[in-house]
Amino acid sequence: MNSGRELPSLSIEELEDMSRRCRINIVKMTHEAGAGHPGGSLSAIDLIVGLYGHNFLRIDADDADWEDRDRFIMSKGHASPAVYSILNEIGYLSEEDLMSFRTLGSVCQGHVDMKWTKGVDFSAGSLGMGLSFGLGCSLAAKMDGSNRTIWVMVGDGEVQEGEVWEAAMAADFHSAGNLKLIVDRNGIQNDDFVNVQMEVGDVASKFSSFGWEVIEIDGHSMREIRDALDKAKSINHSPCVIVAKTVKGKGVSFMEGNPEFHGKAPNDDELRIALEELS
Amino acid sequence: MSAPSTGGASRDGYGSGLLRIADDPRVVVIEADLGKSTKSCHFRTKYPSKSFSMGIAEQNMMLVAAGMAASGKIPFASTFAIFTERAFEQIRNGIARPGLTVHICGSHGGIHTGTDGSSAQSIEDLAIYRTIPGMAVLHPCDDLSAEELTVQLLDHDGPTYMRTARNKIGRIYDHDSVRELKIGRGSIIRRGNDVCIIACGVMVSQAMVAADELADSGIDAAVIDMHTLKPLDIELVDSMAKSCGCFVTAEDHSVIGGLGGALAEHLSTGITAPLEMVGVRDEFGESGESAELMLKMGLTSQDIKNSALKAISRKSG
Questions:
Q1: Is B304 helix (H, G, I), strand (E, B) or coil?
Q2: Which of A78-82, A130-134, B7-11, B284-288 has the lowest mean pLDDT?
Q3: Which is it for the CA torsion A31, A35, A40, A44, positive or negative?
Q4: Residues B159 and B15 reside in one and the same domain
């Protein structure tokens, strides 16, 4: 049994404030690096803050390697600034670490990497692999008789990858009730809008037809996020997916719904405006 | 060393090796609908709670294995050699990059696979897995050595790829000699000073036939079973370069990037010695019986013998 420090369970207002601080760090670190993916980090951050900040994710704040911790597998690994900003909030990473993002030798690699960063459970960067990895973690947990929960996040463009559906089918077949997926349905991928590149359609129905329990929410309502995570955690008979409608670039006016900021860092003027809006 | 006349295919050795390590609670076996072929089926039958079928979905299988490895398990995942290649990027990015210990077995490697035709005859697997940082690449020659090396994988840190073959061949090892094998160390199965034949997989037995025939002509050939292509046993290669002065490699695989490629890479950086390669010449196979195909594609003891004579003739002085 873990005897370490659990994360505090924060109020809705405190979670929203944590999200705001994370957003500031997301734009600051991408600006500092002159590269990175602010859009998908800003769309995902409320969901991630809900997961960590409301103590849904059972980890040890003093021991990132605690074997029986819950896992958070960030499959859309380009949204690494979102992960680094929350790891900063819980104390695994320093401000200095964040500002070293993408530089030689940094613990904050361009895409999240378990080999480099304390508190990162998966080496992402190639889309479509995280749900399979999560299923492996899920099956291992079941073998061990552990009640740890495996949380995975994918983007909506990412579900174009066939491996996601291989994993979805296998997770149902193996009754992976401890496996939870969050789809960041922000509607934009690298080159353009998802419905221009290849529309993924009714993601919720697709997972439902694969045997998954499905919850649909507004991915920026902290109340809905909290309730959805709570419900997902209570479902144990089958894998469960939360399809969260989000806005790419959420919180920074000129990034919102703008495909240009999928993989482009803010310049000096843009950073100034972004920080004004977020402060 | 005498070669017992009976034996199984190296894939049978993989299956029996898994059974020998089944008591370790960390061991899990993962399949993609080819367990009857790779021979992991025996493990699955006996230990269903430690076996996981992922259906015909190799990409998912590789990352499931990675997730298990990151959770304290030691996964052994198998399918046909050719179908592991479908998940090459999963193996590269999802397993090897984070340094996870997953043992992948690709059965039915090479032209020797036979009548299924070129779609099933992987001739590039050893090459592609050699390029992945930190990945060990193995290709045992008979059932007993495959079993022994599978057992040894239990104590091996880091990702591995082991290729096995479909068809039965005569054993190179017996139950005593096989215990001398060690991952990363080439095995001298015949001593000689005129030419060193380095072979892997089904070509080891062809190399032994070639060495016997060369002996009839007064040529003393050494034969090495290089069951581990990576890390390559460069100490042994260097010592054979000194004692024999020339090499022939023999593999049921493309001459590009496999055992011959590995030898060439090493010999170009240190002790130089003539090298002739017996292997597949940048072409696909076709349907046919193994022996017919090996003859057509230049993978016989006669090809090894000819290459040995050529290598000897290239020695300076």
A1: helix
A2: B7-11
A3: negative
A4: yes
What residues in B contact A136, CB-CB < 8 Å?
Answer: 63-71, 75
Q: Which domains does chain A have, with CATH numbers?
A: 12-278 (3.40.50.970)
B208 and B143, same domain (yes or no): no
What's the mean pLDDT when you consider all of chain B? 96
Does one domain contain both B200 and B137? no
pLDDT tens profile B35-59: 999 999 999 999 999 999 999 999 9
Closest by Cβ to B60, choosing from A113, A144, A163? A163
Of all residues in chain B, the percent with pLDDT exceeding 90 is 95
Interface predicted TM-score (ipTM) = 0.96
The answer for A 154-173 residues in CB contact with B (under 8 A) is: 162-163, 166-167, 169-170, 173
A64 contact B CB<8A:
no
B143 plus B222 within the same structural domain: no
Interface probe, candidates A65, A122, A143, A173, chain B, greatest B C-beta count within 10 A: A143
Q: Determine the structural domain holding residue B293 and report its residue range.
A: 184-312
Q: Does any domain span residue B178? A: no
Q: What is the predicted pLDDT for the residue at A2?
A: 53
Q: Give me A28's structure tokens.
A: 């600051």
Residues of B in contact with A141 (CB under 8 A): 71
User: Taking the CB of residue B202, how many other CB atoms lie within 10 A of it?
Assistant: 28
B228 and B119 in a common domain: no
Residues B28 and B91 in one domain: yes
Choose between B6 and B161: higher pLDDT: B161
- Identify the helix (H) or strand (E) that includes residue B78: strand B74-80
Q: Both B157 and B207 in a single domain?
A: no
- Residue contact B64–A121, C-beta within 8 A: no
Catalytic residue among B31, B58, B124, B148: B58
The CATH number given to whatever domain includes residue B245 is 3.40.50.920
Number of domains in chain B: 2
How does DSSP assign B257-295, residue by residue? SSHHHHHHHHHTTSS---EEEEEE-S----SS-HHHHHH
Question: Do B159 and B189 lie in a common domain?
Answer: no
Q: For residue range A54-112, what is the model confidence (pLDDT) as tens digits?
A: 878 999 989 999 999 999 999 999 999 999 999 999 999 999 999 999 999 999 999 99
Task: Decide if B291 is inside a domain.
Answer: yes
Is residue B58 part of the annotated active site? The answer reads: yes
Does residue B171 sit within a domain?
no
Output the six-digit token pair for B286: 């076709």
Q: B124-160 pLDDT, tens per residue?
A: 999 999 999 999 999 999 999 999 999 999 999 999 9
Q: In A, residues 210-249, which contact B (CB 8 Å cutoff)?
A: none
| Closest CA–CA distance from residue B49 to any residue of chain A (Å) | 8
B5: Cα separation from own chain's centroid: 21
**Mean pLDDT across chain A:** 96
- B151 within a domain of the structure (yes/no): yes
Nearest to B90 among A67, A129, A143 (CB): A129
